[in-house]
Design brief:
This protein is an alpha+beta fold. The protein is built from 6 helices and 15 strands.
Length: 334
């Protein structure tokens, strides 16, 4: 303004300042095109599931990690570096809560993490992520005894973001143990989840199992609610035990089943995983249960048998699977 000259600016009786970032391009808006809406949606769902929304400091000491992005004009050494992960920040919060007697800790934060990246502006890449952390015991209930929260509980919560999330074993990550998975939607990696390394937990005085997940918000699709009428006709259930290679995930099997099945397939899920030397080295048996139903009529055995046959052929061609036992039919009255 000083260079242009304040006297050269035309006078006006009204001014408009865009504060919501609606006019910014998608690559500059936090969280992408649907950033604000997605963040509100995620917070609402997770808080309803018992998570506490946290806001922690992105500044930390450079002694807390290697290769951190440092600031030139910092307030002090303890606040002179930008965090590379939100997990240590949530570990501090979890540690404080555990010391104060909390038996169940579920934390979440939508915040930024930073890393060095030469192609990015100023050589620093900033990523907005959703970080979840769980530790302690399940909530007490009269129907069952409390148990330790684990990675399966956390991955189950992530299905609130999208119904079809595939979990693929993660080879190596310094923040997690070998019990970690890569999360994908339609083949696109959206994040990682796993048990936090014991050394990192010990550094924050936590002696319990801690599971965490880091999700890239830009990769998560915005879900639109879908409604369907309640079925008026009885459904039929068929179970299949498929023998597959050890590296084939249950999620991959379900994806193939859904793709190969006709419209009468209403639901599919895993009910058993079995390993035995009689099955074969490097092989496992995964039991899947399938629910078939039509909205127009009562199904007959021939229709369901044909659907099961097409599913068996598809899994054999795509995954090299074979049936361990014959399918079991069970009628379910609605």
């Amino acid at each position: 303004m000083r260079l242009y000259g304040i006297d050269n600016i035309p006078s006006s009786t009204m001014a408009h300042v865009a504060l919501d970032g609606a006019r910014l391009p998608d690559n500059l808006r936090a969280g992408g095109a649907n950033g604000r809406r997605l963040r509100d949606q995620i917070r609402t769902m997770l808080v309803a599931r018992g998570y506490y929304d946290c806001v922690t400091n992105v500044l930390k000491s450079p002694d807390e990690g290697d290769g951190l992005v440092t600031l030139k004009n910092a307030l002090g050494r303890d606040f002179s570096a930008l965090r590379a992960s939100v997990i240590p920040s949530l570990l501090k919060v979890a540690s404080r809560n555990l010391r104060h007697g909390q038996q169940t800790v579920r934390l979440m934060e939508i915040g930024s993490q930073f890393k060095r990246d030469k192609p990015s502006e100023f050589g620093v890449a900033q990523q907005e992520v959703l970080t979840l952390l769980v530790t302690g015991q399940t909530d007490p209930h009269w129907s069952d005894k409390p148990r330790t929260l684990d990675l399966f509980d956390l991955v189950g919560e992530l299905h609130l973001l999208a119904l079809h999330i595939e979990s693929v074993p993660l080879v190596d990550d310094e923040l997690f143990t070998h019990n970690a998975v890569e999360l994908r939607i339609d083949g696109v990696v959206i994040g990682v989840a796993g048990e936090v390394a014991p050394s990192l937990c010990s550094a924050h005085s936590i002696d319990k199992t801690v599971s965490a997940a880091v999700i890239d918000l830009r990769a998560v699709p915005v879900q639109q609610p879908k409604y369907a009428a309640v079925g008026q006709y009885p459904s039929m259930r068929r179970d299949l035990a498929l023998i597959v290679k050890e590296e084939v995930s249950a999620g991959r099997i379900i994806d193939v089943v859904r793709t190969a099945s006709p419209l009468i397939l209403r639901d599919v899920g895993v009910f058993d995983v079995y390993r035995d030397k009689n099955i074969g080295q490097g092989l496992k048996s995964i039991g899947i249960g399938m629910i078939f139903r039509s909205d127009e009529r009562t199904l007959v055995d021939a229709e369901v048998d044909s659907a099961v046959d097409s599913i068996v052929k598809a899994t054999a061609q795509t995954l090299g699977a074979r049936v361990r036992g014959a399918s079991v039919e069970q009628t379910v009255e609605l």
